[in-house]
Amino acid sequence: MKKRLVDFISRFYFILIMIFLYAPILVMVALSFNDSRSRVVWGGFTLRWYGTLFSNRQIREALLMTVGLALLSSFIALIIGGAAAFGIHAMRRKGYVVMMGITNIPLLNADIVTGISLMLWFIRFIPLGFNSVLIAHVTFNIPYIILALLPKIEQMNRSIYEASRDLGASAARGFFTMILPQLAGGIISGFFMAVTMSMDDFMITYFTKGAGVNTLSTMIYGEIRKGIKPEMYALSTVIFAVVFVILLIVNFSPANKKAGNKREGMI
Amino acid sequence: MDRNRRRQLLALPYVAWSILFTLIPLFVILRYAMVDKEGHFTVSYIFAFLSSVNAKAFLISLEIAVICTVICVLLAYPLVMVVRRLKISRMSFMLFFLIMPMWMNFILRMLALQMILSSNGILNMLLGFLGFPPLQIANTNTAVIIGVVYDYLPFMMLPIFNTISDIGEDVLEAARDLGAGPFTVFRRVILPMSLPGLKSGITIVFVPSMTSFVIADILGGGKIQLIGNIIEQEFTRSSNWNLGSGLSVSLMLFMLISMTFTIKDEILTKRPAEEISEEEKAEPRVVGDGVSRRTVL
To answer: Closest Cα of chain A to B241: distance in Å?
Structure first.
């Protein structure tokens, strides 16, 4: 009896937090179907904003910029950060502590300070524009890659790599067939985290972008006073839905289900 | 050992990158903070946070940051326990659940919160429907606090969840067998074991939550000035970059203080690679400091 009560309270609490986290998202989804340019008036159901979404050049450009920036910066961060994770792993205590300290700076520093300090530095040698934003995003993405990869490198079994080398595999082949598969989980989650952070960033982009460069975040920020274009709600809903479906498939596909714990007790 | 040295070289591009784009920018902002408009040395901007207007913003920011951090901790622990209890303990699910909201644009989420909290908003409509009096949350500190908690809650939950999901059921079982009640188990086993996660959660939430000028703008209705708002205005409107830099540097001091916590942890948990025996290498072991566990997915 007591156990069932505690279970009930547990579930109730879980659902409350879920509502807290997802209510604003539901509001945005609802607004994307609202047949009115005002946020506070419900003008009936429409799919209009989804139709006009891609005919708006400004939005298309900002979307391309945002996605391109996120993927490119995460990819560069993956290369630099991935190599760094191997290097840091091989370091002795002192080097390790120093490197991890530096890696933590962009995570612990307030975004506004990161953004401003980069901006003050950039204006000395490059014009603010796509490149400056890209460098800024790579800078804050690298720590996510390193922190996702380091534990995987620690756990990795190196003897099978050495065995493959003994059996005549080249260093590259040994790396791609023996090391990389073991790190796949860390690579994927680090990359995903980096893309998420880059897509969601506002502050650092805001300070390091020049005129003419707009991501969805900075574009929406500029529209707050004039009123947000309803197409923005539609676009955000589309992005959210696409990622949601992809993650759902990846996380809860039957192949994964066997490996995971039972989650039936959820809701 | 030679090979070890060669492997260390792999970190070189990152070393170069972080010197160029992490360390030097910090010195640049420090330099801006220490000169006045004519280029003469001064420390007045670094201590500008003591002047009345800025001190007020600093205190409100501190107050909001403390309240938000505490609320995040208070919300996170029960949730993590609940998730454990309901055996939804797969990390990928928790991650999915907590990271997914970030895929709806941050500013839109804040605007949505504003619509929910505003005086004739969704929350008050629901309350009215249930027969309760409406709440006046919009444009107050409370609204800003709700926004900040909303934004940073995942960053508190993930590291705590990480450490707690590592605790084996057998450990808790043992505690119970020895006569501990649920609260004793929590206080003597779970809480101490989750401290690294808690610590990294606090460092990641506390300083940034002092600066969220966008949240203060949208949910505070322009009435609430966080230190982030003041810095932003110095750069965009009043264009006193030196003052803005000075305030940023004082913020960085807070960051440095919180960093000393995490680095201390690191020294305790990390041993040089050579010291680790082969058997140990085969065993997955906990790595790095609390902050790194945040993103250990």
So the answer is: 9
CB B209 within 8 A of CB B65: yes
CATH number at residue A89: 1.10.3720.10
Chain A residues in contact with B81 (beta carbon < 8 A): 10
Task: Verify that A20 and A124 share a domain, yes or no.
Answer: no
Cβ–Cβ contact B76 with A under 8 A: no
Structural domain containing residue B208 = 35-295
Considering the domain boundaries, does residue A103 fall inside one?
yes
Whole-Å CA distances, A164 to B6, B9, B274, B283: 20, 23, 23, 21
- What is the distance in angstroms between the CA of the first residue and the CA of the last residue of chain B? 31
Q: Which of B217, B288, B295 sits opposite A144 (nearest CB)?
A: B295
Instruction: Provide ipTM, 2 decimals.
Output: 0.84
**Residues of A with Cβ-Cβ distance to B213 under 8 angstroms:** 112
Whether A222 maps to a domain, the answer reads no
Residue A219 in any domain: the answer is no
Mutate to test the interface with A, among B75, B104, B230, B289 (most CBs of A within 10 A): B104
Domain that holds residue A36: 1-49+230-267
> Per DSSP, what are the bridge partners of residue A34?
A45
- Distance, first Cα to last Cα, chain A: 19
Give the other-Cβ count within 10 Å of A262's Cβ: 11
Where is A159: in which H helix or E strand?
Answer: helix A159-166
Residues 6+ apart with CB under 8 A from A231: A49, A52, A53, A56, A59
The domain tally of chain A equals 2
Which residues in B lie closer than 8 A to residue A124 (C-beta atoms)? 28
B160 contact A CB<8A: no
For A177-212, give one letter per residue: b (16+ CB within 10 A) or e. ebbeebbeebbebbbbbbbbbbbbbbbbbbbbbbee
Closest approach of B192 to chain A, Cα-based (Å): 22
- Asked if residue A267 and residue A206 are part of one domain, the reply reads no
pLDDT digits (tens, 9 = 90+) for A197-248: 999 899 999 999 987 788 989 988 888 888 888 888 888 899 999 988 888 8
B8 to A95: CB separation less than 8 angstroms, yes or no = yes
Read off the pTM: 0.84
Instruction: State residue B73's pLDDT score.
Output: 94
